[in-house]
Amino acid sequence: MEYDFEKLLSSSSKRMKKSAIRELLKLTNKPGLISFAGGLPSPLTFPIPELKEISCEILDKDGPAALQYSTTEGDPVLRKILVSRYVKQGLDIAEKNLIITTSSQQALDLIPKVMIDPGDKIIVGLPSYLGGIQSFHNYGACMIGVKHDEYGMSSEKLEYELELLRNIGEKPKFVYIIPDFQNPAGVTMPEKRRMEIIEVCKKYDVLIVEDSPYRELRFEGEDQKTIYQLADPGRVLLLGTFSKIFVPGFRIGWIIGDEKLIDKVVMAKQSTDLCTSSFVQKIAAKYIEKGYFDKNLKKIIAMYKEKKDVMMKAFSEYLPEGVTWTNPEGGLFLFVTLPEYMDVENNVAFVIGKVFHCDESGKNTMRINFSYASHEEIIEGVKRLGAAIKVMMENK
Hints:
Elements: H1 11-15, H2 20-25, H3 48-66, H4 76-88, E1 98-102, H5 103-115, E2 121-126, H6 130-138, E3 142-149, E4 152-153, H7 155-167, E5 174-177, H8 191-203, E6 207-211, H9 227-230, E7 236-241, E8 252-256, H10 259-270, H11 278-289, H12 292-318, E9 324-325, E10 333-337, E11 351-352, E12 365-369, H13 375-394
Parallel strand pairs: 2-3, 5-6, 6-7
Antiparallel strand pairs: 1-8, 3-4, 7-8, 9-10, 10-12, 11-12
Helix pairs in contact: 3-11, 5-6, 5-10, 12-13
């Protein structure tokens, strides 16, 4: 008789769901499939020769330390480098305010781990990053969605939701925002809107979690100050990662915030993985020190701008009337919206927008990635997408 493992499962594990994106990526090796689904950086951006050089150098000069456990807070040299880069951007932080995580996805797991009890309220955007929604859901958070406009999360709608909660004696633990080239919509929040969000959250005494994995991938428009920089001290947690601007396989991310809250995150990480890989942290630090990072970042930005422009042109040529899309100033994604009566759930080369909405709305939307496919694949993929949408429109 087969053992019933279901009776062993915790309530939190029963809440878990598979990622629609990770499951869809299993199809990317299918012959002839052109995928706009994943958030995959182009492999052409990976600096393999430089990483070979640095890996050998570290093993020769610092091998024992590189292959040993590291501190939970992260490699001291890498933390110092990251802090220095943020200070140059105007942030008032020190090493005590930053912890290295095993990707920013781990950060999105550690934050609710230390802050969320089942039933606690949090605010997320409509739409918002699927990995964040998944993590918050797993810890039992009750997510309240606030719709976006062309500038990101609406400050007026945010205040409306916070006032409703105040009237019943409740307050969310935090507001989760991706202000730069938002995943999935690709929208960037201007400083005016950032200040509005800050003032609303200050009025209702709510923490902001600012997720910023794409900030340095700007290829158009003007740089915006981080919400962390604009807000009063202690009111924002800022998340960053090397996954989209260096190499995703290293799984290096970080959290910046008030020292007391960072200390709690350190405790939570100690029981999760003890520390992020010492070896890859030292490689990353040396890669930046040698000047390779900023040089390669310029190449990445130029490449992704070309890919985005190719996709914009293809959309104009091949998508039918009634379909709209965002035109991001950076990052890896854009959002396509079909007429409201349509449901794109049966298509496969993209991620359906519903999974980015905590209330399962957005069935007529889709997230499109433009960083991975070649120019030729982008054009052919958009042709196929346009043809499929036309068929759906005809069969409405």
